Amino acid sequence: MSRTRDFRNLSFSPERIDRCGRYIGSNLYWKFYAVENTFRIVLNSVLTAQLGVDWWDLAVDPEVARRSRRFRSSYTAWPRHANPGQHDIHLLFLSDLTDIMRMNSHIFVPVLPDVDQWIATLEAIRIPRNLVGHMNFPNAHDLATIDNAYSLLPRLLSSLAAGHVPISIPR
After folding, report:
1. Which of 7, 42, 109, 112 has the fewest CB atoms in 10 Å of its CB?
2. In angstroms, what is the C-alpha Rg of the chain?
């Protein structure tokens, strides 16, 4: 089986662009989807358990909350498009999720004693995620970073279970 290579380093061919797109979609993007959404669930679960259902108002920086409201307004202005979810956490960037965890790390420590390592894991995938999200081809280091973050998700969810934190999916 041939290795998919970055089409930009080769002569132009629509097939090469398609091949790269299929590779990124089927081998990488779904991992980012799983990591980001799992972290949204972890944030929501821990903060709901510790602060209550109104945790957003207590735990999120006001500027992040304002940006989220702006994004919500743009979605509302175009109702034909899919709704990103009712909870504002669905409108945040990966860096925002990391900041929420960092700013509230004292709340996470009882459930995730290695919260700093989880923050570092999120920070490590931020640049590869942006590369892929902006249709760039990751290098070997980026691929390993993505795979590592994804492989840690079962351990993250086990920590919630061990801490008796019920899974709470933000709607």
Report:
1. 109
2. 18
Q: Which residues have a Cβ under 8 Å from the Cβ of 73 and sit 6 or more positions away?
A: none
Residues in the chain: 171
Of the candidates 128, 120, 157, the one whose C-alpha atom is nearest the C-alpha of residue 37 is 157
| Amino acid at the residue 104 | N
- Measured from the Cβ of residue 127, the count of other Cβ atoms closer than 10 Å reads 13
Cα gap 126→93, rounded to integer Å: 9
Tokens of 171: 């709607």
The C-alpha torsion from 108 through 113 and 117 to 121, rounded to 10°, is -50
Q: Does the model's pTM come out above 0.85?
A: yes
Residue 107: C-alpha distances to residues 21, 35, 55, 56 (Å): 40, 21, 11, 14
Q: Rounded to an integer, what distance in angstroms lies between the CA atom of residue 122 and that of residue 105? A: 14
The residue extents of the domains of the chain are 30-162
* Torsion angles phi and psi, residue 138, rounded to 5: -75, 155
**Contacts of residue 119, Cβ cutoff 8 Å, sequence gap at least 6:** 98, 101, 102, 105
Reported as a single tens digit per residue, the pLDDT across 70-96 is 999 988 888 888 888 899 999 999 999
